[in-house]
Amino acid sequence: MNEPALTIKNLEKTYASGTQALKGVSLEVPSGDFFALLGPNGAGKTTLIGIVTGLVTKTAGSVSVHGIDIEKEPEWTRALIGLCGQEINFDPWMKPLDVVVNQAGYYGIPRSVAIPRAKKILGDLGLGDKMDQIGFRLSGGMKRRLMIARALIHEPKFLILDEPTAGVDVELRRSMWDYLTALTKQGITILLTTHYLEEAERLASHVAIINKGEIILAGSMEEVLKTHEGGTSGYGGGKLEDIFVKLTSEQT
Amino acid sequence: MPLEKQFISFYTIVRKGVIRIFRIWSQTLLPPLVTSVLYFAIFGTILGSRIGELDGVPYILFVVPGLVMLSVITSAFMEVASTFFFAKFFSRNIDEVLVSPTPTLVIIAGFITSGIIRGMLVGVLVLIVSFFFALPSVAHPLIVLLFLFLSSLVFSLGGLINGIYAKSFDSITIVPTFVLTPLVYLGGVFYSIHSLPPLWQTLSLANPVFYIINGFRYGFLGTSDVSIFICTAVLLLLTGILLGVNWYFLKKGLGLKQ
Ligand SMILES: Nc1ncnc2c1ncn2[C@@H]1O[C@H](COP(=O)(O)OP(=O)(O)OP(=O)(O)O)[C@@H](O)[C@H]1O
Ligand SMILES: [Mg+2]
């Protein structure tokens, strides 16, 4: 499996409103990687993820997942991807177990297989005792974890997480990172967006920074930290954070 | 996606819809029952005793099929229009199935099937309630079933178009109030069109619901203002047209993608 998990070439997106969210983005996520896609609010991260997962139509460019074009074989690429989106979007009237088991159904997994698998994943994510509680009564952090469980139920090779740790407390965040790192050890590729740059610096092996619809930096974390100046702002934070601020403010 | 997996996905969508129908039964099943009881009591029993017979049957037996259809049509329509709209606009949980390999055709079939189930379920419940007011004879049970099914199908398809187009919840409630109810009332629920002036008779023939009510009534009484074949043909034609329109949306991405 040497094909990159994700190959994006000259991707452009202009919304019907006229907003040009992506202006020719090219990006490659190696298979098995923990990849951080960083960028300020409104940079185009969610748009990019939307196109890869088939929720947003592209204006130009091409996208392939594990070498398969998302337009030519959408059913194949969708089966490979697991998405944990930025917005909480499960049916709030449903119980976590049902949310996850239904999601399995959409991938053609029978309930007899999905139920034990869902219980295991929800348990691993610390939701074992909340499985039968109505969705809207979960706390913000629990909802996030339910979103992750839902994304994993069909055992995707490529997991996409759009700010999975927004609103999650420190302790849980750490256990979530451990959980995700363990997944990459099993060979699952992870593409992640986050505004916690210190954590991205510590966990990701590759990083790309997108600003105003353009990639302004991409490479292995090691390389990026080595070749760029940083650590002088006095705000604390990590080196990556300073590089990020420097580059994204330069562009304005 | 292999056919077997498509079926599992279809079943998942329908199962979710049916569980919802029963979970909020006081919004999905109860209102048409309450309205029907009122209609049966007022038009059937109280006014009906003064009207006497119409087309050779007691008035209540004449109005029951139309009133059942009123409930069936609105229920099927609202089921698909509102679940689709809510899934798209509020929690945006339609994305759950959109990111999956489920083909769009299966998604549509799933939503439509929930609408048919709710429409037919409400139809049967209202019919059962009508037994308390008058025991209708059923001349052609299969025609009754066929028209329950076809009209649920047609209005589920219509509800889907509405759900796709709706930009706010108002546009979901507008159609049942300002389009469906007038069509049903003017479609000959309470009268035979032979009692209308010629111009209105002709206009009634342009109302699709007229054929639904007449076909359905034929199933009970064995008589109708127009031939049962024409009624069936009109319904099949409508199904074809609405399927075509939904098919077109399907190809454009169902109005779901930005
Ligand atoms: N549905 C939409 N219609 C029109 N414009 C949109 C839509 N969604 C996003 N945009 C615009 O596209 C641009 C990129 O938005 P996007 O959500 O991709 O940013 P982001 O990098 O995910 O930001 P954040 O970190 O805040 O989540 C923004 O200018 C946004 O206003
Ligand atoms: Mg975003």
Automatic annotation (TrEMBL), chain A:
ABC transporter domain location: 6-237
A molecular function (GO) term: ATP hydrolysis activity
Pfam families the record matches: ABC_tran
Claim: DNA-binding is one of the keywords in the record: no
Descriptive protein name: ABC transporter domain-containing protein
SMART domains: AAA (SM00382)
Keywords attached to this entry: ATP-binding, Nucleotide-binding, Transport
Domain of life of the native organism: Bacteria
ATP-binding as UniProt keyword: yes
Organism encoding this protein: Candidatus Kaiserbacteria bacterium RIFCSPLOWO2_01_FULL_55_19
Gene3D superfamilies: P-loop containing nucleotide triphosphate hydrolases
UniProtKB/TrEMBL annotation, chain B:
Keyword terms, alphabetized: Cell membrane, Membrane, Transmembrane, Transmembrane helix, Transport
Record localization: Cell membrane; Membrane
Membrane topology: Multi-pass membrane protein
InterPro entries on file: ABC-2_transport_permease (IPR052522), ABC2_TM (IPR013525), ABC2_TM_bact-type (IPR047817), ABC_2_transport (IPR000412)
ABC transmembrane type-2 domain boundaries: 23-253
Single GO cellular component term: ATP-binding cassette (ABC) transporter complex
Transmembrane annotation, as ranges: 29-47, 59-87, 107-135, 142-165, 171-191, 203-220, 226-250
Molecular function terms from GO: ABC-type transporter activity
Record carries keyword Cell wall biogenesis/degradation: no
Keyword Ligase: no
Source organism, top-level taxon: Bacteria
Family: Belongs to the ABC-2 integral membrane protein family.
PANTHER family cross-referenced by the UniProt entry: INNER MEMBRANE TRANSPORT PERMEASE YADH, INNER MEMBRANE TRANSPORT PERMEASE YADH-RELATED
Protein name (Swiss-Prot/TrEMBL): Transport permease protein
Source organism of this protein record: Candidatus Kaiserbacteria bacterium RIFCSPLOWO2_01_FULL_55_19
